[in-house]
Amino acid sequence: MIRSFLFVPADSERKLEKAKSTNADALILDLEDSVTPDSRPAARELAREHAGPGVWVRINPLDTEDADADLEAVMRAGPAGIVLPKPWNAGDAMELGFRLSELEQEHDLEPASTRILPICTERPEAVFSMGGYVEATDRLFGLTWGAEDLAAALGATRNRDDDGNWLPPYELARTHCLIYSAAAGVPAIDTVYTDFRDTQGLARYASNARRDGFSGMLAIHPAQIDTINDAFTPSAAEVERAQRILALFAENPDAGVVALDGQMIDRPHLTQAERIVRLAEVARRSNS
Ligand code: COA
Ligand code: MG
Q1: Residue-range domains of the chain with CATH
Q2: What's the CA-to-centroid distance between 234 and ligand 2, angstroms?
């Protein structure tokens, strides 16, 4: 389970070094929007040097020539996965899967070991075309979404209101990402919080994301990592309550419903309790 993914522009040696000292559960070396076309060849070399287990690479959109050059450069390093920007639909994730199969074979990597994380809402067409992810590919790690490219595509001047809440088109995109992730049985990863000095706002945002069902979040700055990891780690009180729910059902194997502190607890609560205990265990291992 990955709580925090830190984007690192792959053309910056300084940031690539700095990224290693953070507690990010995973890094995403970016070859797309944060790197200019002129810097891309050098960035690919740096990405190749730094890619490997725990390190993902964001390539360019599949319908660009850059995408092939990106994959050519980084796959020999065996990255944990590829972040796919601007897919039209799940067909792009499948197409990427075929290219990864060839490159895995070429570089003696374990077949199907490279995961895929599509940013599934950057094109207007993509927002209503997510059904295919449900059956797309075993490589699918999860789904994430983006509000910046979508806003640009819609011709919008902003994507949040004055209080920082997503405006309706972006809330819709976020919801589609969440629901189709669940339908596909993979983690939903919430998008970046661009105001990187606003730690309190980030804590609130990330805590709401976890409440809504997201498993983790994208980050753009090292200062965001600990806040995100905390927010996606169940609190001690939550874990304690979840364990009491598991114990109650274990003690009453024939009961479909039980009572706890004056609340009705039935099967969906058991599912939630199991998830909380599982998340806490994974977080404990990541932190140690
Ligand atoms: N990864 C690794 N290190 C980073 C980093 C990142 N994403 N963002 C900042 N740092 C480093 C800086 O290099 C600096 O290191 P230093 O002390 O060795 O100089 C330190 O963290 C503090 O950075 P700060 O001065 O607060 O920010 P900045 O003005 O240098 O950078 C951004 C601000 C937004 C340009 C930068 O955070 C960034 O590049 N973020 C990622 C952008 C990206 O990948 N976008 C694509 C996905 S949306
Ligand atoms: Mg973008």
Answers
A1: 4-231 (3.20.20.60), 236-287 (no CATH)
A2: 30
DSSP 145-168: --SHHHHHHHT-S-SB-TTSPBPH
Residue 227 CA to ligand 2 center (angstroms) comes to 23
Residues 6+ apart with CB under 8 A from 200: none
d(CA 260, CA 43) in angstroms, rounded, equals: 55
The reply to whether ligand 1 has any atom less than 6 angstroms from the CB of 33 is yes
Q: Rounded to whole angstroms, how far apart are CA atoms 73 and 31? A: 11
For residue 98, how far is its CA from the centre of ligand 2 (angstroms)? 24
- Segment 72-80 shows an average pLDDT of 97
The protein residue with its alpha carbon nearest to ligand 1, atom 13, reads 15
Distance, in Å, from the CA atom of 227 to the CA atom of 237, rounded to the nearest integer, reads 18
Q: What is the pTM of this model?
A: 0.95
**pLDDT tens-digit profile of 130-185?**
999 998 889 999 999 999 999 999 999 999 999 999 999 999 999 999 999 999 99
- The closest-lying atom of ligand 1 relative to the alpha carbon of residue 22 is 2
- Work out which ligand 1 atom sits closest to the CA atom of 197: 26
Number of other residues whose CB lies within 10 A of the CB of residue 214: 25
C-alpha 11: how far from chain center: 22
Chain centre distance of CA 81 = 11
Question: Residue 15: CB within 6 Å of ligand 1?
Answer: yes
What would the two tokens of residue 107 be?
A: 């570089």
Please report which ligand is nearest the Cα atom of 193: 1
Query: How far, in Å, are 49, 50, 104 from residue 10 at the CA level?
Result: 10, 9, 22
Distance 57 CA to ligand 1 centre (A): 17
Running DSSP on this structure, what letter comes out for residue 185? T
Q: Are strands 81-84 and 188-190 parallel, antiparallel or unpaired?
A: unpaired
